[in-house]
Amino acid sequence: MDPKLTEVAQLFARFKAAYARNDLDACVTLLSQLKVQLTKFPSLPPLFQQTPNAVEELKLARDIYEHAVVLSVKLEDQDAFERDFCQLKPYYMDTCGIIPPSPEEYPILGLNLLRLLVQNRIAEFHTELELLPVKALDHPCIKHAVELEQSFMEGAYNRVLSARQAVPHETYVYFMDLLAKTVRDEIAGCSEKGYDSLSISDAKQMLMFSSDQELHQYITEEHPEWEIKNGSVFFQKAKESQPCKEIPSLQLINQTLSYARELERIV
Amino acid sequence: MAAVATVSSASGLLAMLQEPAPELKLHALASLNSVVHLFWPEISTSVPTIESLYEDEEFDQRQLAALVVSKVFYYLGELNDSLSYALGAGPLFDVSDDSDYAHALLAKALDEYACIKTRVSKATEEEENIDPRLEAIVERMLEKCILDGKYQQAMGMAVECRRLDKLEEAIVRCDNIQGALSYCINLSHQYVNHREYRFEDDALLAYQIAFDLVENENQAFLLNVRNRLALPAPVPSNPDTGSALQDDQTASTGTGAETAGDVQMRDDTTTPNGNAHTVDPNEVAHADRLTKIKGILSGETSIQLTLQFLYSHNRSDLLILKTIKQAVEMRNSVCHSATICANAIMHAGTTVDTFLRENLVVIHFYLLPLHRIAALAISLSHYGVVLQEWLSRATNWAKFSATAGLGVIHRGHLQQGRALMAPYLPQSGAVGGGSPYSEGGALYALGLIHANHGEGIKQFLRESLRNTSAEVIQHGACLGLGLAALGTADEEIYEDIKNVLYTDSAVAGEAAGIGMGLLMVGTASEKASEMLAYAHDTQHEKIIRGLSLGIALTVYGREEEADTLIEQMTRDQDPILRYGGMYALALAYRGTANNKAIHQLLHFAVSDVSDDVRRTAVMALGFVLYNEPEQTPRIVSLLSESYNPHVRYGAALAVGISCAGTGLSDAISLLEPLTSDVVDFVRQGALIAMAMVMIQTNESFDSRVGAFRRQLEKIILDKHEDTMSKMGAILASGILDAGGRNVTIKLLSRNKHDKLTAVVGLAVFSQFWYWYPLLYFISLAFSPTAFIGLNSDLKVPKFEFLSHAKPSLFEYPKPTTQQTTTSTVKLPTAILSTYAKAKSRAKKDAESKANQEKTTEEASGSTSGKAAKTQEKDADAMQSHIFKDSWTPSTNCISCCSKVDNTAEKKAPEPEPTFQHLTNPARVIPAQEKFIRFIEGSRYVPVKPAPSGFILLRDLQPTEAEDLALTDAPSTVAGTTSNTAAAAGQQGSGSSAMAVDEEPQPPQPFEYTS
């Protein structure tokens, strides 16, 4: 076996050990070493050179990045997650069967979908979904994310929140917690549009807070434009600050007229 | 299973850029650099990230980041950004890379560098703020070229970038120094404005340079050069001018257009030539040479020679005029003045006023009552009286035009000009000496005679202007002054004209506006805003029109610099100012084919509410495009089918202006339908434009010329034709045979420099729509088509050279015969010609094979035939068709099936010779230039192998006596008039004994008595 490959494999073994004993700091240092080591393999993306150990190397690299993704979830670091996932993706998408599919593939893809949902990046969510083969949609991990998105879109927030109990993979828990926050933001946005004011107790219930304290904190942090007086939350100010966009009728009329005029001018 | 894996996205790499570890960033950058051509759309969204890497001082591979960003910008089409990052990439940017990216950026870098260098050299006080990195790249490029042995490339770049040190290095390091130098000379001929590299100190070359300078017609610049020469600059230049490098430097420093800074340098190129002889003991010879070169620079020498040439080669066809005269209704003043104008144009610069003296008189007999015939018969010898009769018919403005016409005829008659016009000029103190119209006309005529060479006459014109209060005289004087002081920006004259303008008289004000413009041509002075302000103040449309044209003239050639003014004018409420704006666009972007200008003009052509503006906008296209005449018919073809007659008219003139003198087939095809348009003025425009295009093209070159001539005749003879188109036809006949057929309309000089006078002349000419006397401005656009060889004494020696083409292709059109003029309107000749064309086409197909066989036969038969055949290959396809057409006598007859040919001795069955000996000075029309060859082993060798223009000849046998040609100066003694045709036939054979310097006599004066 190639000495370099062995070296990386050993390093990876140490990483796994550290991971197993939950020594996250050691994991991070080892991981960055691993990544640097990986840049020395020409068989990896984007070069994909046909080296004798290509299959081994690709498998190892994929494994490393899969671990990196899971680690980032554990560290609750969304940026790292995105970075690692992007680097992992070519191993799934572009290897064209050089290496056998990984068992972790769908859980991780599902995790990514969930992340996009949490970050409310719905467009990218659907883009990712389109890239998946049809049979992948049946996988519980993917299905979970898709169903969540549907409920989210319908506004069935209670279903979203109750789905936390039925996660298909332990790593999903972190994102499900974050999802509750996203849902709350959505609800807050809807209430703002829907009501002029809400009594504090109603608002508390609506936004799923257990105490007034939490509500107050949420309002000061996220929606400073809301006003609390006489035991109610007033959204009036927020509405005023966002004047309804007027249809640029005059401009449109002008434009249409000028088109007509141009058309009339035959050379 | 396809085992080849390819990356589908760069997102992984982009994500890696975000990694905290610098190694990973580096790896990501390196990988990105290799895939940037595939994934630049993806990478472009992350450009800010990479940019921040580049700006990060601690990141050790900043240059790589810059390179990646540069590539992305290149793919995005942002060449400027790309270049600035490529500069940041430093040595990583590989000049020897063979990718599109490297090529594009190198070109960009060189452009940028050359541009900066040019700017720096123009504005000397400006700090040299060239990016050292840019310089480094260019130097690396040059270095590489030299290392690779691509010396020519290196030299080209060095010249363009004005890096004379590099040029020198390239030449010195080149293994073939001789070759390199000759290439260098070619280069400077081609790219560097009219400048010769000099190897021997030879006064001839100095003269040649001077002639070339004069051809570019920048009066202010020439004056400047002359003034500098006048100083006895005794700085002895290095006598050993054989060291070519020294020369390269003097010469190359002068690159660029006429700017003040440049004058100094250009001066350098001429001064040493003239001064090279200061080291000679022979001071007298030097002084003599200096005088000569001054003479050349003042334009007098060339004008005088041109005058002699035009006079001696005058082949104008008086019968055409006679026909016109016969057909034109005397009462119709429009046609009447058009005839006078046609006469003037036909004889422009020839000093021949035979028509006025002879034919008109005779024809007049038919028109005049009997008792006057008796009177006339008595005074026949006194043509002045007769002319008076003729001119006395001209009333008011027609008289003005008629007198001005004399100016066109005598154009360039510098010394005698004033004497010639003296009888008509306003006499100080003499009250009622003449009509103000003829006086004004005479002042205008003086301007035309001295156009662009008005040093001697300026003062007189100014005085005349000051001493009069008659608006007609002011009108003439303003135009005359403008012409004489063209582009000199003389403050005093400007003030004088401005005073006239402020009298707010419509007639004088119009001329004043134009005159101010002429005076300030191309200066872009702030006077323009003064004029604009007055144009807003005044109530007179004529003044506004004159001023707006004047303003347009001031921005001549200023391109972007003029944009503000153009914008101001084109947005004005007043259509006349918008109309001026069109002219401003036309003149500011003359001959640049600038896309922005074309776009703007097309926009106005279809969207302005005023017909005048639309017409002018289309016409202006002609000015913008005259450097690419092939483009114009294509661009205006749609406009020529517009429903709006004004637009059609504009399209016709646009083609006429930009394709003038080219005989371009496309242009003729476009104009043909317009000559039979339903609207009279469109026909007029089309006829004039057609004449401009076809000028100097004869029937055997393009058979449509014959058809056109017949069409003109038909229109003129047709009693029911509209006046407008009749006038067009008369003028067209004049233009077609302009200057005794020895001139063409040229807007570009031989070294592709704009001819200011010509462009300005045409621009003002196109104003004739409003003011007929402006028709005469067309004479400014005429340039003689001649080869005039000169020896070191600036005399015209006898010298022969070859034209490797059939003489019939370029000969003068056949003179019309008496028969054609006396017979009434011929049978439908148009049908004849189309029939002939159709038949010739059919016949051509059938005979093409036979022809080819014949060609080969003939080629093997005689050496001259062989020469002609190779010549033929050189010629373009269309031309070779004509060659084949006329190869056999039978097709020849059909294609030239005119009544003239049928009656003439053309039936001769023997084939035409395929070449022709021309004798200096000779008529060489532009289409003929490529066939001109110099005979080896002849006594004279041209300094510059140019096929036409003024060429200095080196005498290889200086000891022998020289045989001079063209010594017969134009003489207008009444006795020789009947012999003009014979004199013209002499081809300047030198039989006449008159000395060259002798000036032609002025015609005897006549006076108005009305």
Automatic annotation (TrEMBL), chain A:
<dbReference type="InterPro" id="IPR033464">
    <property type="entry name" value="CSN8_PSD8_EIF3K"/>
</dbReference>
<dbReference type="GO" id="GO:0005634">
    <property type="term" value="C:nucleus"/>
</dbReference>
<feature type="domain" description="PCI">
    <location>
        <begin position="79"/>
        <end position="251"/>
    </location>
</feature>
<dbReference type="InterPro" id="IPR000717">
    <property type="entry name" value="PCI_dom"/>
</dbReference>
<protein>
    <recommendedName>
        <fullName>PCI domain-containing protein</fullName>
    </recommendedName>
</protein>
<dbReference type="GO" id="GO:0043161">
    <property type="term" value="P:proteasome-mediated ubiquitin-dependent protein catabolic process"/>
</dbReference>
<comment type="similarity">
    <text>Belongs to the proteasome subunit S14 family.</text>
</comment>
<keyword id="KW-0647">Proteasome</keyword>
<dbReference type="InterPro" id="IPR006746">
    <property type="entry name" value="26S_Psome_Rpn12"/>
</dbReference>
<dbReference type="GO" id="GO:0008541">
    <property type="term" value="C:proteasome regulatory particle, lid subcomplex"/>
</dbReference>
<dbReference type="Pfam" id="PF10075">
    <property type="entry name" value="CSN8_PSD8_EIF3K"/>
</dbReference>
<dbReference type="GO" id="GO:0005829">
    <property type="term" value="C:cytosol"/>
</dbReference>
Automatic annotation (TrEMBL), chain B:
<feature type="compositionally biased region" description="Basic and acidic residues">
    <location>
        <begin position="843"/>
        <end position="857"/>
    </location>
</feature>
<feature type="compositionally biased region" description="Low complexity">
    <location>
        <begin position="971"/>
        <end position="995"/>
    </location>
</feature>
<feature type="compositionally biased region" description="Polar residues">
    <location>
        <begin position="238"/>
        <end position="249"/>
    </location>
</feature>
<keyword id="KW-0677">Repeat</keyword>
<feature type="region of interest" description="Disordered">
    <location>
        <begin position="971"/>
        <end position="1010"/>
    </location>
</feature>
<dbReference type="InterPro" id="IPR040623">
    <property type="entry name" value="RPN2_C"/>
</dbReference>
<keyword id="KW-0597">Phosphoprotein</keyword>
<dbReference type="Pfam" id="PF18004">
    <property type="entry name" value="RPN2_C"/>
</dbReference>
<dbReference type="GO" id="GO:0030234">
    <property type="term" value="F:enzyme regulator activity"/>
</dbReference>
<feature type="region of interest" description="Disordered">
    <location>
        <begin position="842"/>
        <end position="877"/>
    </location>
</feature>
<feature type="compositionally biased region" description="Low complexity">
    <location>
        <begin position="250"/>
        <end position="261"/>
    </location>
</feature>
<dbReference type="GO" id="GO:0042176">
    <property type="term" value="P:regulation of protein catabolic process"/>
</dbReference>
<dbReference type="Pfam" id="PF21505">
    <property type="entry name" value="RPN2_N"/>
</dbReference>
<keyword id="KW-0007">Acetylation</keyword>
<feature type="compositionally biased region" description="Pro residues">
    <location>
        <begin position="1001"/>
        <end position="1010"/>
    </location>
</feature>
<dbReference type="GO" id="GO:0034515">
    <property type="term" value="C:proteasome storage granule"/>
</dbReference>
<feature type="domain" description="26S proteasome non-ATPase regulatory subunit 1/RPN2 N-terminal">
    <location>
        <begin position="9"/>
        <end position="198"/>
    </location>
</feature>
<dbReference type="Pfam" id="PF13646">
    <property type="entry name" value="HEAT_2"/>
</dbReference>
<keyword id="KW-1017">Isopeptide bond</keyword>
<comment type="subunit">
    <text>Component of the 19S regulatory particle (RP/PA700) base subcomplex of the 26S proteasome. The 26S proteasome is composed of a core protease (CP), known as the 20S proteasome, capped at one or both ends by the 19S regulatory particle (RP/PA700). The RP/PA700 complex is composed of at least 17 different subunits in two subcomplexes, the base and the lid, which form the portions proximal and distal to the 20S proteolytic core, respectively.</text>
</comment>
<dbReference type="InterPro" id="IPR016642">
    <property type="entry name" value="26S_Psome_Rpn2"/>
</dbReference>
<dbReference type="GO" id="GO:0043161">
    <property type="term" value="P:proteasome-mediated ubiquitin-dependent protein catabolic process"/>
</dbReference>
